[in-house]
Amino acid sequence: LEDGIEVVFFGTDTGEVAIRDVKMQQNFARSMSLAEATNPDNLLCYEMNGAALPAANGFPLRLIAPGWYGIANVKWLERIEVRDTRFMSLLMARDYV
Question: Model-level pTM?
């Protein structure tokens, strides 16, 4: 963590993106600064109302980051990476700046 500057949350969901008329599939991922990601108010949710989190709500794991737009609350979370460089996926760089 000491060299990290960002934390990237990767979901299993994918979407089609196009660059210069070339279409490709890309998994959804959202990054936050290390300070934002380690906010003690953030939650990794696996249950809701005492039961397993429903698939529609992000089963098996969902990030809840209070104060962030819903797009930052990654559903179907499969991987978390701490990075020492900026994360620049197409969705982060172009669509959700």
Answer: 0.82
